Amino acid sequence: MRTSPRFNRLLLVLLPLVLAGCVSSEVKQLIPITGGKTVAFSFGPKGAEPGRANGYEVQVAALLPGTDPKDSFYQFAFTAPAGAQVKRVQIEDVSEEVAAFPLVDDAAPKFTGNRWQADSAKIRAGDPHFAWAMTIQTSMRVYRFTITDAAGARTEMLHVVGYPDFIKSMMRKKWGEKY
After folding, report:
1. Do residues 142 and 160 make contact, with C-beta atoms less than 8 angstroms apart?
2. Phi/psi at 171 (nearest 5 deg)?
3. Is the pLDDT of residue 8 over 60?
4. Pairing state of beta strands 139-149 and 56-65?
């Protein structure tokens, strides 16, 4: 059976439109974490979806430069559901298979409205925790937020941040590394 040239042209015009409806703007990526587990994270047009659980949502998870060129620190923030009575906030980097790296342990969290924010202690360049920054490919870092409320119930959120090499290159340069 032969089709007409007009039908073929119509098909060529319509086929991409039909197939475009099948494409999702969300991508899932499996990322290994501490304990040999693998977790699926969603990435949309604006990057990774924030960690969320039980009405809590991660707002900030960032590695920032310290005042000393060899220092860096993490800054974290999340929002809590209305009326939440949070007793403790713990944040760990769970990106390494062997062990989690504790970053924040706030036993008396203070909120501004429904938002909590804190900084980690300073971490010096050369610290074994920063071995990932010495590589020249994108590093995916996963942070586990463990929130304990006044009743003792624990909420856990995992949040992923990608550090492309151009960011890590700036970090290494600030630390005085020659790459």
Report:
1. yes
2. -60, -50
3. no
4. unpaired
